[in-house]
From TrEMBL:
GO BP annotation list: protein catabolic process; proteolysis
Species: Dovyalis caffra
Pfam families: ClpS (PF02617)
Domain called Adaptor protein ClpS core: residue spans: 78-144
Protein name (record): Adaptor protein ClpS core domain-containing protein
InterPro entries the UniProt entry points to: ClpS, ClpS_core, Ribosomal_bL12_C/ClpS-like
PANTHER family named in the record: ATP-DEPENDENT CLP PROTEASE ADAPTER PROTEIN CLPS1, CHLOROPLASTIC (PTHR33473)
Amino acid sequence: METAICGRIALSPNHVFNPKPGDKNSVCRGPCVSRGILMAISTTGSGKGGGLLEKPVIERTNPGRESEFDLRKSKKMAPPYRVILHNDNYNKREYVVQVLMKVIPGMTLDNAVNIMQEAHYNGMSVVIICTQADAEEHCMQLRGNGLLSSIEPASGGC
């Protein structure tokens, strides 16, 4: 395979043939005026195909520091825990809903009411599934507001 770049012919990766304008092997007929413009012409020779591709170099930007992908992966791999709200005979339903909305991030009024109702009728309800550290924090906050709660390992992902 030959590659010509405005008169220069690369016979191999290490050898470049540079004919003069007007030579019979020159790609440019007459004077090569536009040497700033690269022209690539490839022809198929009698060889068996293309050259060798170099192995790509994979660089770590900061050795020892996890990438954002690694951090997301490790969070997904953390075993999930359930925060469970238990029914009690002391707290009013409205108060339970208010505490759930205050303690659990992103808790809506509808979800808080449904969780409270399920705990009231079934004795307990799953409040949220999250990492162990977050589950422990939510459980302590619920208890700090007078609600009965516990955590347990959950099967499946977060």
